[in-house]
Amino acid sequence: MTVATATKHWARERIVPAEVDRYLPADGDFIPDDEIHRLLTLTAEPDAAETRAILAKARAIETLTLSELATLMRVRDPELWAEMRAAAGDIKRKVYDNRIVTFAPLYCSSKCVNNCLYCGLRSSNSAVERRVLTQDDVRAETEALAGKLGHKRLVVVYGEHPESDVHYMAETIHTVYSVKVPVRKGWGQIRRVNVNAAPMSIAELSLLRESGLGTFQVFQETYDRRAYARLHPAGTIKSDFRWRLTAMHRAQEAGIDDNGIGVLYGLSDWRFELLGQQAHALEMERFCGIGPHTMSFPRLEPAVNTPFAEASRWRVSDADFERLVVLARLAVPYAGLIITARESPEMRRRLLPLGVTQMDAASNIGVGAYVDGQEKQKSSRQQFILGDPRGLDECIREWAAAGCITSFCTAGYRCGRTGKCIMDLLRSGAEGKFCKLNAILTFKEWLDDFGTPETQAVGAELLQRELDEVRQQQPAIWPTFQQHYQRIVAGERDLYF
Ligand code: SAM
Ligand code: SF4
Q1: Domain boundaries defined on the chain
Q2: Which of 121, 133, 264 to mutate to test the pocket of ligand 1 (most atoms within 8 A of CB)?
Q3: What residue ranges line ligand 1, CB within 6 angstroms?
Q4: Ligand 2, CB cutoff 6 Å, lining residues
Q5: What's the CA angle centered on 475, arms 469 and 478, to 5 degrees?
Q6: Measured from the CA of 119, which atom of ligand 2 is nearest?
Q7: Mean pLDDT over residues 252-264, rounded?
Q8: How many CB atoms lie within 10 A of CB 28?
Q9: Helix or strand or coil: residue 161?
Q10: Is it the case that residue 431 has pLDDT exceeding 70?
Q11: Residue 375 pLDDT > 90
Q12: How far is the CA of 115 from the centre of ligand 2 (A)?
């Protein structure tokens, strides 16, 4: 059998129909298109009382219904919008305090059997160099990420291809976790590996779970099924809307309970997408009582030899993007919100106070690009082109100056605080207390091991304020916490609550 035939054969076997049908009715799914279209035809602007009642529900960390979210979308009054923005920031602080979690993407392979019109890695794009990292390559990339940059959390990303199947994924995750690099005072190490990959079967996801992943992310890309069909050519695995729509159900069944969803904004009307995503979040809650751990907001970026990415009529303006982030924050108040370096530094600055909880930094999306530094700007090696090329030190300094502590905390899944447990803790505001402690410890580690003197100075001021807050607000835990902090100062690493 030739490689091409073997690849086709592999692709044909990917979808397990029984693992779609058991979650969906034969004649439909849980995205109520007609209802969403109906809600979008309503034009009456809600009055202040109605708007504030919905905001009160969001402030109580309750998920909004489709109708409530659609009502907030119709608010035009600038004063009410100011209240909505303020509520988004308040909810973020209530659930996550002033923490911002950071991570970096690690692209392990750029081979893909799919042909998504918007993506630089699509199979028909001959302008892209293809590469699948060997385990030695993965080790070298991890050494650069954990040893030079100081990252503790990664999202590993794969094209859908037999050379990067679930066995390869599991091996790469083991390799990433095995790397330990001596640095200034302690050591560099990746402590949480999240995965962004194509939907898989329950058996494959069980294998993935055993590798010790953090969050499993699959973005639906678009909830508009007509756009979906146009953008994902028939005959490709990804053309199966329902297989993708049930990815999170299968993950839950396989025991992966931190799951991330997302929309690629710019493929269809953003208002439809946001409501579609809300229907997905509500379905996840209905199915297993656990909504999305994270929601991602990739916005369509240019990619080499990919005209669609620049020509789409649905590209989302900065003003609308800001609105939709506020709306999403209000709609699923407990979920982590991820804004990646696809966005420019200015845009990320604008979005930070509106409820964002995670941002990547020092990101490189070329396969092998953390080692081949000079190659990092080469578009022929990337899925798309990034908007924020800044390093981690600069980002951390900026976030600290804005009053946000960068957290490298990875305690949650290692202490069993995942799925329903973490959701309940987040909803009640209790998780914020653990996280504050772990944020301080990991921030101090990073400053000592990797920070420039300039960032250490800005960070020290922030740390002092944070330490004072713990001493005053958590007196019971303060003595133990202080001991942990001193041990970190002395060079011990990876202590957590
Ligand atoms: N190949 C897997 C899949 O598609 O499910 C793994 C993830 S893919 C490498 C990562 C994500 O990048 C996609 O889900 C899509 O949302 C996003 N993406 C693709 N093309 C993009 C573009 N031109 N601009 C911004 N994001 C893009
Ligand atoms: Fe492949 Fe994912 Fe790109 Fe589609 S978005 S072509 S599945 S890498």
Answers
A1: 3-26+96-415, 33-88, 430-489
A2: 264
A3: 112, 118-119, 157-160, 196-198, 218-219, 221, 264, 298, 300-301, 303, 309, 342, 383-384
A4: 112, 114, 116, 119, 121-122, 159-160, 198, 238
A5: 80
A6: 3
A7: 97
A8: 10
A9: coil
A10: no
A11: no
A12: 7
pLDDT of 418 higher than 80: no
Distance 355 CA to ligand 1 centre (A): 23
Residue with tokens 């992966």: 256
Query: What does each C-alpha distance from 485 to 243, 414, 463, 479, 493 come to in angstroms?
Result: 47, 20, 11, 10, 10
Cα-to-centroid distance, 27 and ligand 1 (Å): 28
Are the beta carbons of 463 and 446 closer than 8 angstroms? no
The reported pTM is: 0.95
Element at 389 (helix H, strand E): none
Q: Please give the DSSP secondary-structure letter assigned to residue 145.
A: I
Alpha carbon distance 466, 447 (integer Å): 15
Q: Which stretches of 135-192 are DSSP H helices?
A: 135-143, 166-178
For domain 3-26+96-415, give the CATH number.
Answer: 3.20.20.70
Determine what percent of the chain falls in helix, strand and coil, rounding each to the nearest 5. 50, 10, 40
pLDDT over 70 (residue 374): no
Contact 240, 113 (CB under 8 A): no
Residues in the chain: 497
- Show Cβ contacts of residue 236 under 8 Å, excluding neighbours closer than 6 positions: 11, 113, 114, 115, 123
Residue 285, SS3? Answer: helix
Q: Which atom of ligand 1 is nearest to the CA of 302?
A: 23
Q: What ranges in 232-300 are assigned the alpha helix state H?
A: 241-245, 247-253, 270-288
59-62-68-73 Cα dihedral, nearest 10 degrees: 50
CA atoms within 13 A on the CB side of 234: 1
> Tens digit of pLDDT for each residue in 5-44?
888 889 889 999 999 999 999 889 999 999 999 999 999 9
- Residue type, position 34, single letter: D
pLDDT tens digits, residue range 122-172? 999 999 989 999 999 999 999 999 999 999 999 999 999 999 999 999 999
Q: How is residue 364 written in tokens?
A: 């490189």
The mean per-residue pLDDT over the stretch 56-80 comes to 98
- The model's pLDDT over 353-364, given as tens digits with 9 standing for 90+, comes to 999 999 999 999
Gap from CA of 368 to ligand 2 centroid (Å): 18
- Tell me the average pLDDT across 50-64: 98
Nearest CA to ligand 2 atom 7: 114
CA dihedral sign, ordered 460, 462, 464, 470: negative
